[in-house]
Amino acid sequence: MGRVYNFSAGPAVLPEEVLREAADEMLDYQGCGMSVMEMSHRSKVYDKIIKEAEKDIRDLMKIPDNYKVLFLQGGASQQFAMIPMNLMKNKKAGYIVTGQWAKKAFQEAQIYGEAVKLASSEDKTFSYIPDCSDLDIADDLDYVYICENNTIYGTKYKQLPNTKGHTLVADVSSCFLSEPVDVSKYGIIYGGVQKNVGPAGVVVVIIREDLITEDTLPGTPTMLKYKTHADAESLYNTPPCYGIYICGKVFQWLKKMGGLEEIQKRNMEKAKLLYDFLDQSEMFQGTVEPKDRSLMNVPFVTGDKELDAKFVAEAEKAGFVNLKGHRTVGGMRASIYNAMPKEGVEKLVSFMKQFEADNR
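Above: the chain sequence. Below: its structure as tokens.
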């Protein structure tokens, strides 16, 4: 059937150009006679791959010199434990709960110390971002934690919380590299790459150097200390080599396209097409407060479960796959990450228009 339009929330669509390049290099990477999948992570060839990947993400995000870039395993979910293990010096941290992943991180932190819920949008099924301009933040909090783009609920912080001088830690898994970002506002900014950057199995952690210390909670495994990986330049043990190689290709693709300013422009155009249609449609409605809408994840419903199911089934037959919404929201969700071409969104919108006309 050829390539479909894949609206999956993750693992998600990758740039076709990157996949073709990887396919060409599958058996013989740049004349070395083997695949990146087969080579030693200690080899000169691989060392160049991981160093270039780091240099390219530093260029793209304009990462200051006093931040380390770590390519780790365990996905974003392992960071839910790693962050308190490494940062909870006073055994107290603040969490803003705006969705399932922030909630899971909040629950995990309770294992290691006192996790304080500073604000939450659970009262309205996480359909908005709470006002974080003047939160009640105790002086002895070690950090303030947010999930910046909520994949399931389709919300995004347009303004970072006022942490009142405390370290900000942000999970950016589903908006990673989708727009320019001021890294210096964060102590840690991290993301699992399987939504917007590469294949599942890699998490990129960008961490300010002063937060990397020997002083971790008692019982923290060697593998879960940031210092272990920072000192070894992400090569303490065998990293997810092939995944990092693909991420590196995506970084190069983004640079070639004109960087994060350019990709943000494209992402805004794509999202506008879909939101404009939802706002005028009589059948489909978005589920998020307009001011907090994500550019990456767009949930919508018809208000009728049977009609939702019919839409998802017919869309799939027409080549628009993975549109079923998360069970906690129902309905549909279109994830329109960097690699989703504008044409994919245009075609989805015209399919939705036709479906609306046929099912009045």
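Residues 21 and 288 are 38 Å apart (CA to CA).
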